[in-house]
Amino acid sequence: MTRTDGRPRRRREPSRPAGFGRRSGPILATLHGVLAMFFFAAAWTKLTEPLDLLSLMMTWPAETTAEVVRAVGWIEFMLAAAVVAPLVRDRHGRIAALAATLALSGNAAFMTTYYIVQRDPGLMTTNLLLILICAAIWVGHRRPRTRSGLGP
User: Fold this and answer.
1) Can you tell me the distance from the alpha carbon of 15 to that of 21, in angstroms, rounded to the nearest whole number?
2) Going by C-beta distance under 8 Å and a sequence separation of 6 or more, which residues neighbour residue 102?
3) C-beta of residue 61 within 8 angstroms of C-beta of residue 55
4) Are 133 and 34 in contact (CB under 8 A)?
5) What is the distance between the alpha carbons of residues 108 and 117, in angstroms, rounded to a whole number?
6) Residue 15 burial by Cβ neighbours in a 10 Å radius (0-12, 13-18, 19+)
7) How many angstroms separate the Cα of 152 from the Cα of each of 22, 86, 97, 143, 149?
8) Helices (H), strands (E): how many in the chain?
9) 82 phi and psi, to 5 degrees?
10) Of 101, 105, 58, nearest to 81 (Cα)?
11) Which of 39, 48, 50, 62 could bridge across to 80 with cysteines, CB 3.0–4.6 Å?
12) DSSP class of residue 4?
């Protein structure tokens, strides 16, 4: 393809994430998959299990209504679907995945605080691990910088 002045147009390389170097593709895909699988499973549990069984697994469903638990389940389900969006469609899926990852890390941070207050170290540790996975996804999706430091 040429420009109007007859010179050939330079081929633009697709921008690659700079977070994990050469192996960023498989690492990011794995992190996206792990985060999505966790939240798909959590959402499925909140949507299908009876409230009394959920109250045995977690403390917060006992303190709220079934409608709130189901709404949280649907929200987690939709955010988990958005996390795997780059694996399906890379161009626009990245933005959806980063927004969903930010929302899920906020959810995990809120629940970490809740479990600290409730003195539940197991679920607190699980949510801290989810925050670390979300942070790793954000680091992995950083844009590479040029020598001038101004970005691509």
Assistant:
1) 13
2) 134, 138
3) yes
4) yes
5) 14
6) exposed
7) 17, 20, 21, 7, 9
8) 6, 0
9) -70, -30
10) 101
11) 39
12) T
Tokens of 142: 């950083």
Based on the number of CB atoms within 10 Å of its own CB, is 79 exposed (0-12), middle (13-18) or buried (19 or more)?
A: buried
Q: Give the whole-angstrom CA distance, residue 14 versus residue 94.
A: 13
Q: Is 7 exposed, middle or buried (0-12, 13-18, 19+ CB in 10 A)?
A: exposed
Per-residue pLDDT of the chain in tens (152 residues, 90 and over written 9): 556 766 766 655 544 444 444 556 788 888 888 999 999 999 999 899 888 888 888 888 888 888 988 999 999 999 988 888 877 766 667 778 888 888 989 988 988 898 888 888 888 899 899 999 999 888 887 765 555 554 45
Tokens representing residue 12 in the block: 């633009």
Residue matched to tokens 């081929």? 11
Q: First CA to last CA across the chain, in angstroms?
A: 23
Cα-Cα-Cα-Cα torsion 104, 78, 60, 135, nearest 10 degrees, comes to -10
Token pair 């209504």: residue: 65
